[in-house]
């Protein structure tokens, strides 16, 4: 088998809904080697399908799958129109599939291609959420029993309908679960009063060793975020995530001036340009960009390298809407990246795990990857075909007076 050129002979998009929607790109080469990449964009899946099928795939046929960087540049620069979640998810899917192919041709797992192991296992955090403080504390206990060393805690607020991060199930929290967006209510005052009490109780019940995280999900203004960060300082959070929307990167200066609570941001960023100022001005501690939404391993590596200059560490998004193909690629990245911080790990349902056979597994608070060549995740196409696409959207949030707010 020649390891120099592997001509792309076909590429197709597979859409499946084993409990939730996933979009997967499968690229095949003339040597019979194939690779897969995740292209899922929650609630906007079919836009990425169209972008891939109509604009990307016709350009891939005949290209050398080994030229990952050149294909990345071709898809990014060559389109003239740059950035954006649809474009970057499509590029990510191609990039992930090409790293998978390169690994298979080389007979090596992707982390070896990147430079080899920097750690034995990838520290992950799970999601504990409850209807109120004591229920959330019980959930934290349950996650500790499962072996987690880092736990994200979110709590419902009595009297406020549909607080962020509180799912119906406790293992497979799924926010996009209605055809039209579910309406939730947001009350900043109640949230700012309640959240410090939640973490006070969690430290009392669970001690100081366990790492605790919290996601504000873009709900606060910069000043309110500063107030929350300050009020959470006694409870030593691992991070406070997405405390204010970050289109305006400057906003984080204000938060930073007022609190030493570590700041994480970036799950909805698509490129290095979305986080450049945040990183260079040392306004954040963790960058949450991930494989599928930030242009694949090739681009994520560029972001992590910039971040490493400023002691900013990685903390990739890993919610259930990112498929196992994204998780597998992310874990290879995490196993290599020198400035690793943590990896989010929301478990997929058994149906999803069956559609995407994979060689990563959880033990003792860590996810570990196997040595399968490529990224170690496959797709069972026959099984995938049994779960047709179901249109679903994320919820929206309104203030108590009805004003549309950030969900
Ligand atoms: C969340 C996500 O995991 C997280 O940190 O912010 O669950 C997010 O709401 C979803 O990925 C949106 O699709
Ligand atoms: Mg988040």
Task: Walk me through this protein's architecture.
36% of the residues lie in helices and 18% in strands. With 407 residues, the protein is α/β, with parallel strands linked by helices. The chain has a domain of 259 residues: Enolase-like C-terminal domain (TIM Barrel). The strands form three sheets. It has an eight-stranded parallel beta barrel, surrounded by four helices. It has a three-stranded antiparallel beta sheet with strand order 1-2-3. Strand 15 and strand 16 form a beta hairpin. The chain is globular, with a radius of gyration of 21 Å. The mean pLDDT is 96. The chain binds D-mannonic acid and magnesium ion. The site of magnesium ion has 5 residues, from loops.
Helicity level, as a percent range?
25-40%
Order the strands across the largest sheet as they lie in space: 4-5-7-8-9-10-11-12
Please give the oligomerization state of what you see. Answer: single chain
CATH C-level class of one domain is Alpha Beta
Gap between N and C termini: 51 Å
What would you say the CATH architecture of one domain is? Alpha-Beta Barrel
Q: How would a crystallographer describe the biggest sheet?
A: 8 strands, parallel, barrel
Number of helical stretches of at least 4 residues: 13
CATH superfamily of one domain: Enolase-like C-terminal domain
Query: What's the rounded overall pLDDT mean?
Result: 96
Helices and strands, in order, run as EEEHHHHEHEEHEHEHEHEHEHEHEEHEE
- CATH-derived topology of one domain: TIM Barrel
Ligands bound here?
A: D-mannonic acid, magnesium ion
* Class computed from helices, strands and strand pairing: alpha/beta
According to DSSP, the number of beta strands is 16
């Amino acid at each position: 088998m020649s390891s120099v050129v592997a001509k792309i002979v076909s590429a197709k998009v597979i859409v499946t809904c084993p409990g939730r929607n996933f979009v997967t790109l499968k690229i095949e080469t003339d040597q019979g080697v194939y690779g897969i990449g995740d292209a899922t964009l929650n609630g906007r899946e079919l836009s990425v399908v169209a972008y891939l099928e109509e604009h990307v795939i016709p350009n891939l046929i005949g290209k050398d799958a080994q030229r990952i960087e050149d294909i990345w540049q071709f898809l990014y620069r060559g389109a003239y129109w740059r950035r954006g979640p649809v474009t970057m998810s499509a590029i990510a899917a191609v990039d992930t599939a090409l790293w998978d192919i390169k690994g298979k041709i080389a007979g090596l797992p992707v982390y070896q291609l990147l430079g080899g192991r920097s750690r034995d296992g990838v520290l992950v955090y799970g999601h504990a959420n409850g209807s109120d403080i004591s229920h959330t504390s019980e959930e934290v206990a349950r996650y500790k029993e499962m072996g987690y060393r880092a736990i994200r805690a979110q709590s419902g607020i009595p009297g406020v309908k549909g607080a962020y991060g509180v799912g119906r199930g406790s293992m497979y929290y799924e926010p996009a679960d209605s055809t039209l967006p579910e309406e939730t209510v947001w009350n900043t005052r109640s949230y700012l009063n309640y959240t410090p009490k939640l973490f006070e109780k969690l430290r009392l019940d669970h001690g100081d060793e366990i790492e605790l995280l919290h996601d504000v999900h873009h709900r606060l203004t910069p000043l309110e975020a500063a107030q929350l960060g300050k009020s959470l300082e006694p409870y030593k959070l691992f991070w406070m995530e997405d405390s204010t929307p970050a289109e305006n990167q400057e906003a984080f200066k204000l938060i930073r001036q007022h609190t030493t609570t570590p700041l994480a941001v970036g799950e909805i960023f698509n490129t290095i340009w979305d986080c450049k100022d945040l990183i260079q001005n040392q306004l954040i501690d963790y960058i949450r960009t991930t494989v599928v939404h930030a242009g694949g391993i090739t681009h994520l590596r560029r972001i992590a390298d910039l971040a490493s200059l400023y002691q900013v560490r990685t903390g990739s998004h890993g919610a259930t809407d990112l498929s196992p193909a994204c998780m597998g690629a992310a874990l290879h990245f995490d196993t290599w990246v020198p400035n690793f911080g943590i990896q989010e790990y929301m478990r997929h349902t058994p149906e999803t795990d069956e559609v995407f056979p994979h060689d990563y597994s959880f033990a003792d608070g860590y996810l570990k990857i196997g040595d399968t060549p490529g990224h170690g995740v496959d797709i069972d196409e026959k099984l995938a075909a049994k779960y047709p696409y179901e249109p679903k959207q994320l919820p929206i949030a309104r203030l108590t007076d009805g004003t549309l707010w950030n969900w």
